[in-house]
Amino acid sequence: MPSPQSLSEADRRLVASWAADCAERVLPLFEAEAPDDDRPRDAIARARAYASGELDTAGEIRRRFVANRASQVVSSPAAKAAAWSAGQAAGVAHMGAHALGSAAYAAKAAELHQAGAGAAEIAWQLEQLSDPARTALRLLPALGTDLSGPLGSGLLASGVLGANIRALQDGLRRRPEVTALELVGGPEPVRVELHDADPRWPERYLDHRQRIIEALGTSAGGSSTIAIEHIGSTSVPGLAAKPIVDIVVAVADITAEEDYLDPLLAAGYVLRVREPRHRMVRTPERDVHVHLYEQGAPEIGEYLLLRDHLRSDTDDRALYERTKRELLGRPWDDMNDYADAKTEVILAIKARARAALSR
């Protein structure tokens, strides 16, 4: 399965042009020290040629980091960062996340050359983005949330480069994220009831999956494929559950509510939760909950880890059901309080799930 940091080839070509612009801005810092070394300039030219479709992906992948070696012939940190910016731009053919790497190195080079210039460089970079390129970059996972590429735990994730990429990803959002929990309608006292596994739950999921697809089209993520998964206890065959189907949907920008929340409300769902990184809508009957996160959000992976493990491990499935039954009969001020009461057992089950995957 391709890394979410790769992007589609079409999106890589979109962001390659922007990465070349970022690298070219600081190229004079390198050429002032090594005027006869054309490797960074050539890398930028190849990034532009790749963006326009003149060069193929395979050929550029083989040559992607030639410019990085040019950093060895200059002495100043700013010139070295400029060379690395060009190398990252050429690397976009391999993985779209390198576009953010190119911009981050360019901002670092600008800051090293003149104190205070890094923030201005990032502002300039964001202003140069076309709407399609901005949409493509929003598909990348948040820094540090996915380990399958340069935005994982490597060089780009730490220090000045990490700070620059965080600033860039924050700047890609339509607007600032909310900072507190909003529980629309306030707390709702509930009495949790478990039902035996019902074959209608997967059918209900499929019905609502189709409704979500029809409501969102391509607006949720700028892609023809919307990531939608059945999660929670109703997604595990044979597991007793409260009769509420939980669904998770990945969107490109959680702050761009007009792209996903407005269409879902128009499709008949009702907003229940708005909090940092997460929105939840539900049916008026409260029998389907739709959780929305940004693409690459670690919460999505956690949901799927638990679901897949419970589907395959009978002992932990039985433990989880016993835990839920032990909580039956208690009055709960809100459904979220019931969910919190299961946390310790869920964490232990997920630890075993990770251990099983590593074997």
SSE blueprint:
Elements (H helix, E strand, L loop, with lengths): L8 H23 L7 H13 L5 H7 L13 H14 L7 H16 L3 H12 L2 H8 L20 H14 L9 E2 L6 E2 L8 H17 L11 E4 L13 E7 L5 H10 L3 E6 L2 E5 L5 E7 L3 H15 L1 H13 L4 E2 L2 H7 L1 H16 L1
Parallel strand pairs: 4-7
Antiparallel strand pairs: 1-5, 2-8, 3-4, 5-6, 6-7
Helix pairs in contact: 1-2, 1-4, 1-5, 1-7, 2-4, 4-5, 5-6, 5-8, 6-8, 11-14
Protein name: GrpB-like predicted nucleotidyltransferase (UPF0157 family)
Keywords: Transferase
GO molecular function: transferase activity
Describe this structure in words.
There is one protein chain. The chain is of the alpha+beta class and 359 residues long. It has two domains: 9-172, no CATH class; 182-358, Beta Polymerase, domain 2 (2-Layer Sandwich), CATH 3.30.460. The chain has 14 helices and eight strands. The chain has helices at 9-31, 39-51, 57-63, 77-90, 98-113, 117-128, 131-138, 159-172, 200-216, 257-266, 298-312, 314-326, 335-341, 343-358; strands at 182-183, 190-191, 228-231, 245-251, 270-275, 278-282, 288-294, 331-332. The strands form two sheets. A six-stranded mixed β-sheet has the order 1-5-6-7-4-3, with helices on both faces. The protein has a two-stranded antiparallel ribbon with strand order 2-8. The protein is elongated, with a radius of gyration of 24 Å.
